[in-house]
User: Which sequence fits this backbone?
């Protein structure tokens, strides 16, 4: 099993920034991918960003240039820096970890962007 604990999130005005963090109970070097999905009310859960164990990253087109995902292997944490937030970024953000086949989820963090 992998336990994931998320922190961060909150309320921010459009144009502002937030930083999410996800702490893993397992050495993240043993996890192929980690990242975040988000789900807005009435919408499907979609991938926002992910980072592989070799450091390669992928981003949704809607957040490219604004969000940056990074990992600290020594601390077993993954961070998502979110800049230039807009109201369309409002959602619950779920950290995930994918060692091989199974996927593990964090508890979710609410991000609300106001106009």
Assistant:
């Amino acid at each position: 099993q992998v336990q994931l604990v998320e922190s961060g999130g909150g309320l921010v005005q459009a144009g502002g920034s937030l930083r999410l963090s996800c702490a893993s109970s397992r050495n993240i070097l043993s996890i192929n991918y980690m990242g975040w999905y988000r789900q807005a009310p009435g919408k499907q859960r979609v991938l926002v960003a992910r980072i592989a164990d070799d450091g390669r990253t992928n981003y949704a087109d809607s957040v490219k240039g604004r969000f940056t995902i990074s990992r600290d292997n020594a601390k077993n944490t993954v961070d998502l820096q979110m800049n230039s937030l807009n109201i369309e970024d409002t959602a619950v953000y779920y950290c995930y970890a994918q060692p091989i086949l199974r996927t593990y989820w964090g508890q979710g963090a609410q991000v609300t962007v106001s106009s």
